[in-house]
Amino acid sequence: MKSYKYIFLSVLFLGLFACEDELNIDPQQSLSTDLAFSNEQASLGSLMGVYSRTQDLEVFGSMPQIIADYQSDNVSFIGSFPTLQDVNNFVTLSDNSSIETIWRDNYRAIFAANAVIKNVPDVDDPGFSAEEKAQYVAEAKFVRSYYVFFQMANLFGDPYTLDNGASLAIPMVLDPFEGDVTFPERATVKQIYDQIKTDLVAAEADLPETHGSDLALTLGRATKGSANALLSRIALYTEDWQGAADYADKVINSSVYQLAAGYNFYSQNTPEEVFSLQNSATDNGRTGSGGWASFYNPAEAGARGDCPFSQDLLDAYAEEAGDKRFSDLTQVGANEATYTTKFPDPVNNSDNVPLIRITEMYLNRAEALAELNGVNQASVDLINDLRDRAGLADWTTGQFGSNDAFLDAIANERRKELAFEGHRRMDLLRRGLALRPADDPKMEDSMPGKPKTILPVPQREVDLNQSLVQNDGY
Questions:
Q1: Pick from 253, 291, 403, 428: most CB atoms within 10 A?
Q2: What separation, in Å, do the N-terminal and C-terminal C-alpha atoms of the chain show?
Q3: Quick one: which H or E segment has residue 459?
Q4: Percent of the chain, pLDDT > 70?
Q5: What are phi and psi of 201, to 5 degrees?
Q6: pTM of the model
Q7: Quick one: DSSP state of residue 146?
Q8: What does the alpha-carbon distance between residue 394 and residue 426 come to, in Å, rounded to a whole number?
Q9: Which domains does the chain carry?
Q10: What is the share, in percent, of the chain residues with pLDDT greater than 90?
Q11: What pLDDT does residue 17 have?
């Protein structure tokens, strides 16, 4: 029997995370692990390899986010991939090859993070301080929490709010693969979320505020700000309104981040971003299938052009004239479809990906305070900061006849602010709403709790692991 171990080398350090070399090694040969964690420099290379794994197309290189957009109401499907068309039409089967690859590559990222978490504390290097080791472990816990556990639980399990997290999600693997094959069961969504919260709270204490003066490192590696931001999002998803508000407030009041004056921050490193995937023309997740820019740009720009605006999203922006979130961030393709310009490099896919922005923290806090206090001035002020930037009139508390109307309005602002950034599907599901509008023939199929709103455990994995229970409807 062979085991598979990974050595990660940091060949591009300043914000550009390295590629990895995969080695087939017999179980008795432990040299690869010894080398990967032989000293501080090797350990840093292994940590950079964890970040590199997240660039993969099927991790945060765009494929899971594209699938989420196809399920929801922000984009129209005009692509050519049958596996993605099935997702769009809510007829996915358990042998869907795109979903198989997502499962495989995310677990590779999990094992890479687990290796850092387990091995770094025992590295024998006098120059490698206990504080530095704790930081590396904290960074790996953040990446495992966000990129892998959080994303996978949301794709393969029902929203927490449907049944207080009782739905099965994914196997919660906390150890690196060291040659012994095990057959873990699926943990519940609540168990995954609880583990994420535990890891993030512990990590926040050991993470730095910044990674020095290089903004690319601060935004591309885990920090206290990114840990608090993810804790805010998880609290929002679990209806811990006070936690969502408080964690968001920590990020908003940090001196590291600042709401941008306009919308020219995409694919750049600016204080608008709290955490972003750092790409370049030579180091990104693009494959023959494309990346973020390839899917979201028109074909004549050298892209696939598979994800234009849906009519429903166009109608949402048309509710108020002069919305700069539309006028400043769109282009019309030769097919007369409207596309976003948030990812402007469809040729090389060098665009950074804004996974967490401070804008989201304004929205999180505004929603949470509205849930706690009803229509309130603090929430209005937070949203007005975003509306001022968008060139829209300020809100007043008196214009909302009920708190439900207020919450719906905040959700609508959230949709327009964060479109195409991976939020829409879960923002609908966690609020108990259908993924498709009422006039869509798939609306009934897209309600929370319906079988096809979550992805199947790949049939290959079920065949290999008798402990795995398949999702209903597959």
A1: 291
A2: 32
A3: helix 459-464
A4: 93
A5: -60, -45
A6: 0.92
A7: I
A8: 27
A9: 1-65+79-162+179-185+438-474 (1.25.40.390)
A10: 87
A11: 32
Q: Indicate the helix (H) or strand (E) that contains 462.
A: helix 459-464
Q: Which residues contact 11 (CB under 8 A, 6 or more apart)?
A: 18, 19
CA 140 from centre of chain = 15
Question: Which tokens sit at 65?
Answer: 């986010």
Contact 427, 411 (CB under 8 A): yes
Tokens of 418: 């964060």
Query: What would the DSSP string read from start to end of 408-448?
Result: HHHHHHHHHHHTTTT-HHHHHHTTT--SS-TTSTTTGGGST
Residue (of 203, 43, 32) closest to 123 by Cα position: 43
DSSP 84-103: HHHHHTT---TT-HHHHHHH
More confident residue, 27 or 159: 159
What's the full length of the chain, in residues? 474
In angstroms, rounded to a whole number, what is the distance separating the alpha carbons of residues 361 and 156? Answer: 25
265 token code pair: 């921050």
DSSP per residue over 224-274, as a string? HHHHHHHHHHHHHHTT-HHHHHHHHHHHHT-SS----SSSTTTTS--TTEE
DSSP 19: P
Distances in whole angstroms, Cα of residue 311 to Cα of each of 68, 190, 339, 453: 17, 35, 12, 21
Q: Enter the DSSP assignment of 72.
A: S
What burial class does residue 279 get, using C-beta atoms within 10 Å of its C-beta: 0-12 exposed, 13-18 middle, 19+ buried? Answer: buried
Q: How many CB atoms lie within 10 A of CB 329?
A: 18
| Residue 21, H or E segment | strand 20-25
Instruction: Assess contact for 281 and 226: CB atoms under 8 A.
Output: no
Report yes or no: 236 and 197 within 8 Å, Cβ to Cβ.
Answer: no
Residue 28, pLDDT score: 30
Q: 109 is written with which tokens?
A: 């990222």
Residue/partner pairs of 207-212 with CB below 8 Å, 24 or more apart: 207/135, 207/138, 207/139, 207/142, 208/135, 209/254, 209/256, 210/256
Residue 378 structure tokens: 């603090």
The helix/strand count (H/E) of the chain reads as: 20, 6
